[in-house]
UniProtKB/TrEMBL annotation, chain A:
PANTHER family membership: RADIAL SPOKE HEAD 6 HOMOLOG A, RADIAL SPOKEHEAD-RELATED
Record keywords, A-Z: Cell projection, Cilium, Cytoplasm, Cytoskeleton
Protein name: Radial spoke head protein 6-like A
Subcellular location: Cytoplasm, Cytoskeleton, Cilium axoneme
Source organism per UniProt: Hondaea fermentalgiana
Lineage of the organism: Eukaryota, Sar, Stramenopiles, Bigyra, Labyrinthulomycetes
Superkingdom of this protein's organism: Eukaryota
Bias-annotated ranges (Acidic residues): 87-98
GO cellular component, one term: radial spoke
Example GO BP: axoneme assembly
Pfam families in the record: Radial_spoke (PF04712)
Region named Disordered: 82-112, 414-443
UniProtKB/TrEMBL annotation, chain B:
One of the protein's GO biological processes: motile cilium assembly
Name of the protein described by the UniProt record: Radial spoke head protein 9 homolog
Record's keyword terms, sorted: Cell projection, Cilium, Cilium biogenesis/degradation, Cytoplasm, Cytoskeleton, Flagellum
Origin organism lineage: Eukaryota, Sar, Stramenopiles, Bigyra, Labyrinthulomycetes
UniProt record similarity statement: Belongs to the flagellar radial spoke RSP9 family.
Location in or out of the cell: Cell projection, Kinocilium; Cytoplasm, Cytoskeleton, Flagellum axoneme
Keyword Transmembrane helix included in the entry's annotation: no
Length: 443, 275
C-alpha cells in the first residue's frame, strides 16, 4: 500500500457513522457554496455547524420514535371518549384449532350524557370577550370528557367548566356541578366537624389536561377554609401532595384546591341582581322565575351585581354555630353572623368594561367585570342573550398590597397558677457528713 | 406586519389572550408601523390598568456591523386608542417614591405619578439641585416592562448563535430542542446581554450558546421556573413564578417558540413562602 492509501484509510475510519474525510469534504463544500468573505477566520464555526447539522438529525429521529408512542397512547385514551372500545377479535393461529388468548376486553366508559352540560360553546365565546382563551380543540375535549363524567353518575344534574387553576408542575381544569354522589371515604368521620350542606351546594371535579379523567374533590370543611385563608402557596398539580407552610393545612392538596375554589367563589361568583331569589323562609335560594337582564350600560356598575357564592364567617362556616353558655342560654357564634345567600358585590373590587369598546352600542355587546381582588377572575354578561358567566384562570391566590407574613404561632399557655394544688416543698437535707453516716458504713 | 407577530398558541396554553377586538386592532396597527429598521416584531404582552390596559410589542433591531447583541425596542398602546408609540424613558429604574407592592396602572400614560422638581439655584445655605422631570405612568410602564423582560426573555438553547462576524444572530438552522432537552430548565437561555462577562466581539474562537447567553436560572431562584409538558410532549410550557402571568412555549423538534406576559406588572415577592 502506498502512503497515500494508508493516509486515506485512516481518514476514512468510521467514527459513529461518519468519518473525517467526509466531514472535511462537507466543510469545503459549504465554503465553496456559501463563499464567506473571511472563510479562514470562521472555519471553526463552519466545521461546527456542519457537524451539528449531522448530529441533530439522529437525535431528533430517536426522540420522534418515543414521542410517537406517547401520542399513540394518548390518542387511544382520547378515542375512548367518543367511541366504545372494539371487541378484540379472536385470533386463530395457523393450526386453526385453538384461539390464542385474547387480551382482556377493556371496560367501556359509561355512555355520554350531554344533556346536563350547559351551552359551553356560548360560554367560551363570552369568555373570549374577557380575554380568557382556550384552544377550540381543548374545549371540545373537555366537553366530551364531561359528558362521560355525567354518564358515569346519574345524580349529576348540571355541569359546567369553572376555570383553570395553574400549578407548578401541572394545572387543573375545574368543573363545577350540582348533584354528584359522594365517593367512598368522603363521609363525615367521627370527631371531625361535619361538612356544611350550604357550603357544598356545588361539587367540583378536576382534570389535569383536556380529555383526561376527572377526579371528584371532597366536601369543603370549615377547618380547610380557615387554614387556606392564612396560607399563600402555589399548587403543585398533584392532588396527593401535602400542603406545606404554617399553619399546617388539614389534608392534602385535594382539600386545598377545594378550599381555594371556595375562597374565590366567596368573592368572585357574582350574578346580575335579581337572577337568584331567596325563598320566603330564607332557607334556600333558586333561580328567580322572572328575570330580565339589565342593559350593558347598567351592568358596567358593580352595584348591578350580587355575590352568590357561600360567604364564610370567621369560623370558616356558612351558618352561625349555636352553643350553650354556662347559664344554659343558646349563643350563636360569631356574634351577629347570619347565613348569606346573596349579598352586594363590592364595587371597589371590580373593574368593568364594555366589549367591544369600539362598538359599545352593539346589540350583543358584553359587560366584562374583572376582579381586582383575585387576578384572573371575570364575570361576563350579555343583555342580548340574557346569559351571564363567571370564570377563573390563575394561580389561586389573591392580590395583596402588603407582603405576605405567615401568622405568628399562638401565645404560650400560662402555667397553672392555682393555689389549691401546690407542689410539695423540696426536702433539703444537710449533706454534710455526720456521725450517722459513719456509723452506717461501719455496719 | 404578518399575523406571525401575534401567536395565539401561547395564549391558548396560558389560558389568557387578547380579546378578538384587541387582536384585530393591534395587528392592524402593527401593519402601519414603520419596521424598516427591525428584524422582526412580536407581541410581548398586556399590562392591566384600571381604565384601560396597555398592549406592548417588542421589535428586534437589525444587526449593525458594530453590534454584538441586537438591540430591542418596545412600543405600547392603550386599549382606548390603539395608537402604537415608542416605549422609551429617561429613567434607568423606577422612581423610589413609586411603591412596587401597591402600584397599579390607570391606563393613561400621561398620568404624573411623581411631580417634576424644579431646579433650585445655589444659595448660601443649600446647594442647588438639578431639575427632575416628572415620573409619568409611561416611565413606570417602561421600567416595569424592562424589569420583566430582563428576567424572562426566554429562548431555547441554539435558537441564537454567534455569526462569523461575532454578532449574536438568529440561527436559521435551528431545528428545536429534543423532547428530553425541552423538559429541562437548563436548556433555556435569556436572550439579553449578560450582566457580566467579556463582550462577544473580544472572544476568539468557537462560542457555545452558554458562553454568550445566561441560563434562565440566573434571574430566578431554584424552583421558580415551572416547566410542564403536555401528555404527548409535543409542547412544553414554561411559566415564571416570580412574574406570575409570564408564559413561554416551545414545540420540541420544531423552531417554534414564543412567550407572553399577561398581568398587573407586579413581582411576586412572597415566592419564598409559596414553593
Amino acid at each position: 500500500m502506498t502512503d497515500f492509501e494508508v493516509a486515506k484509510a485512516f481518514l476514512l475510519k468510521d467514527q459513529d457513522g461518519s468519518n473525517l474525510f467526509d466531514h472535511v469534504a462537507d466543510v469545503l463544500l459549504k465554503v465553496i457554496s456559501e463563499r464567506p468573505e473571511n472563510a479562514l477566520q470562521v472555519f471553526e464555526q463552519l466545521s461546527a455547524s456542519v457537524k451539528a447539522g449531522k448530529l441533530s438529525g439522529g437525535v431528533a429521529n430517536e426522540a420522534t420514535q418515543a414521542q410517537r408512542e406517547l401520542i399513540m397512547a394518548h390518542s387511544k385514551q382520547l378515542s375512548k371518549l367518543y367511541r366504545d372500545p372494539e371487541a378484540p377479535e379472536a385470533v386463530e393461529d395457523d393450526e386453526g384449532d385453538e384461539a390464542k388468548e385474547a387480551p382482556e376486553p377493556e371496560e367501556p366508559l359509561p355512555a355520554p350524557r350531554a344533556d346536563v352540560l350547559i351551552d359551553m360553546d356560548k360560554e367560551f365565546a363570552a369568555w373570549r370577550a374577557a380575554g380568557v382563551h382556550m384552544a377550540p380543540q381543548d374545549s371540545f375535549k373537555l366537553q366530551m370528557s364531561l359528558a362521560r363524567l355525567a354518564g358515569a353518575d346519574d345524580s349529576i344534574q348540571t355541569l359546567r367548566l369553572w376555570g383553570k387553576l395553574l400549578g407548578r408542575e401541572g394545572d387543573y381544569f375545574v368543573a363545577e356541578g350540582t348533584g354528584g354522589a359522594a365517593e367512598e371515604g368522603d363521609e363525615d368521620e367521627e370527631g371531625v366537624e361535619p361538612a356544611e350542606p350550604e357550603a357544598n351546594k356545588h361539587t367540583y371535579w378536576v382534570c389535569s389536561y383536556p380529555g383526561g379523567p376527572w377526579t371528584r374533590l371532597g366536601s369543603l370543611r370549615p377547618e380547610a377554609v380557615l387554614c387556606a385563608r392564612q396560607i399563600k402557596r402555589f399548587l403543585t398539580g398533584n392532588l396527593d401532595a401535602s400542603v406545606l407552610g404554617y399553619p399546617a393545612f388539614p389534608g392534602t392538596e385535594r382539600a386545598y384546591v377545594r378550599a381555594i375554589i371556595a375562597l374565590i367563589n366567596e368573592e368572585c361568583a357574582i350574578a346580575p341582581k335579581g337572577y337568584f331569589a331567596v325563598s320566603e323562609d330564607g332557607d334556600a335560594v333558586d333561580v328567580a322565575e322572572e328575570f330580565t337582564m339589565p342593559a350593558v350600560a347598567d351592568l358596567l356598575d358593580a352595584s348591578a351585581w350580587e355575590a352568590y357564592g357561600p360567604a364564610f364567617s370567621s369560623l370558616g362556616r356558612v351558618r352561625p354555630v349555636e352553643t350553650e353558655d354556662a347559664e344554659g342560654n343558646t349563643v350563636s357564634q360569631p356574634e351577629g353572623w347570619e347565613l348569606q345567600w346573596v349579598r352586594d358585590a363590592l364595587a371597589e373590587k371590580w373593574t368593568a368594561r364594555a366589549y367591544p369598546r369600539t362598538l359599545p352600542d352593539l346589540k350583543h355587546a358584553h359587560a366584562v367585570l374583572r376582579s381586582e381582588a383575585w387576578p384572573g377572575a371575570f364575570a361576563i354578561a350579555s343583555a342580548a342573550s340574557g346569559a351571564w358567566s363567571n370564570v377563573y384562570v390563575g394561580y389561586g391566590f389573591a392580590r395583596a398590597d402588603t407582603l405576605y407574613t405567615p401568622p405568628m404561632p399562638p401565645a404560650l399557655q400560662k402555667e397553672y397558677g392555682g393555689a389549691q394544688f401546690k407542689e410539695q416543698d423540696d426536702v433539703i437535707e444537710d449533706p454534710t457528713l455526720g456521725q450517722d453516716n459513719n456509723e452506717e458504713e461501719d455496719a | 406586519m404578518s399575523s406571525s407577530a401575534l401567536d395565539a398558541r401561547v395564549g391558548a396554553l396560558a389560558g389568557r389572550w387578547l380579546t378578538p377586538e384587541e387582536e384585530t386592532l393591534l395587528s392592524n396597527e402593527l401593519s402601519v408601523l414603520d419596521t424598516s429598521d427591525l428584524d422582526n416584531i412580536t407581541f410581548w404582552g398586556k399590562i392591566d390598568g384600571n381604565d384601560a390596559d396597555y398592549l406592548i410589542v417588542v421589535g428586534q433591531d437589525k444587526l449593525k456591523e458594530e453590534d454584538d447583541y441586537p438591540d430591542q425596542s418596545f412600543w405600547f398602546c392603550s386599549t382606548t386608542d390603539f395608537k402604537l408609540r415608542p416605549l422609551t424613558t429617561t429613567w434607568a429604574t423606577r422612581h423610589p417614591e413609586v411603591n412596587a407592592t401597591t402600584m397599579r396602572f390607570t391606563g393613561d400614560a400621561a398620568t404624573e405619578l411623581v411631580a417634576a422638581v424644579e431646579a433650585t439655584e445655589d444659595d448660601e445655605e443649600t446647594k442647588g439641585t438639578a431639575a427632575v422631570d416628572a415620573f409619568t405612568e409611561k416611565d413606570l410602564l417602561a421600567c416595569v416592562v424592562k424589569d420583566i423582560h430582563g428576567a424572562t426573555a426566554v429562548v431555547p438553547r441554539g435558537a441564537f448563535v454567534v455569526d462569523p462576524l461575532h454578532r449574536v444572530a438568529k440561527n436559521v438552522n435551528f431545528t428545536g430542542l429534543s423532547v428530553a432537552e425541552a423538559q429541562d430548565v437548563s436548556s433555556y437561555l435569556l436572550f439579553r446581554k449578560p450582566s457580566e462577562g467579556a463582550a462577544v466581539r473580544d472572544i476568539d474562537g468557537l462560542l457555545k450558546p452558554e458562553c454568550f447567553l445566561e441560563p434562565i436560572s440566573a434571574t430566578h431562584p431554584t424552583g421558580a421556573w415551572s416547566v410542564q409538558a403536555d401528555p404527548c410532549q409535543t409542547t412544553v410550557v414554561i411559566k415564571s413564578l416570580v412574574y406570575p402571568g409570564f408564559s413561554f412555549y416551545h414545540e420540541p423538534g420544531t423552531a417554534r417558540f414564543g412567550s407572553l406576559y399577561m398581568g398587573d406588572g407586579r413581582k411576586n415577592e412572597d415566592l419564598a413562602f409559596m414553593i
